[in-house]
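Hi L.,

As promised, Septum site-determining protein MinD:
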Amino acid sequence: MAISIAIASGKGGTGKTTIAANLAVALAKFRRDVIVLDADIAMANLELVLGVEGKGKTLNDVLAGRASIEEAIYEGPAGVKVVPAGISLDAFRKARPEKLEEVLKKLHDMAEIIIIDCPAGIGREALTAISASEHLILVVNPEISSISDALKVIAIARRLDTNVLGAIINRTMKEDSELSSKAIATILEVPVLGVVPEDPNVRKCAAFGVPIVIRYPDSPASQAIMEIAAKLIGKEYKPKKVEKESFIKKFIRGIFGGRK
């Protein structure tokens, strides 16, 4: 039987989908059998991050009764299995979000870990995804508005008997205006599972449809996500130290492109 982990956020723009996608791939790199499912059926983006867009059958088709869940599973990077939500408006209009729990029950026999990318906020689809999951991880930014919204999600998750594993602080820039990890843990009353720094490579990867843990495995964000994945499965992982580029190296790379 798989364990299911909902990846949620109190507001949009925290980088939740990027974290969900890369965390799933990171767990697959640790040789775990992982399914990642896009429960954001209205604003589906997971398939773009993982490079599996344009598939024939999707979660919306399953929720609409037009396909089986087996038909909507595709192989993604590092062997992770992906269930995209799809972008068909017709399938979305006919989808029944309340069937998500039934879908997850079927997936439980197909993997060790199910990562669920929830819609942001506390709308009906988000609550359905959270209630259908055993565990929850919040993705927050180090700012008071993000933390305030996250508190609402935590309160609702507890009412739904979904276990809150902790929070991932994403897109940190080490500025004085940012809330510290300790302050965030104190306010949310949950552990901080890891801190992922702002990384320009994330945007590049989104353009290519390749997760950052695959395209730039040594980047600061990749290393942070790999460390979080290892923590979740009880593995030891020492992040690689990334040497800072000298001014000369940056100058030369700027002239000659430095593309990978």
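The chain has one domain: 3-256.

Thanks again for sending the construct details.

K.
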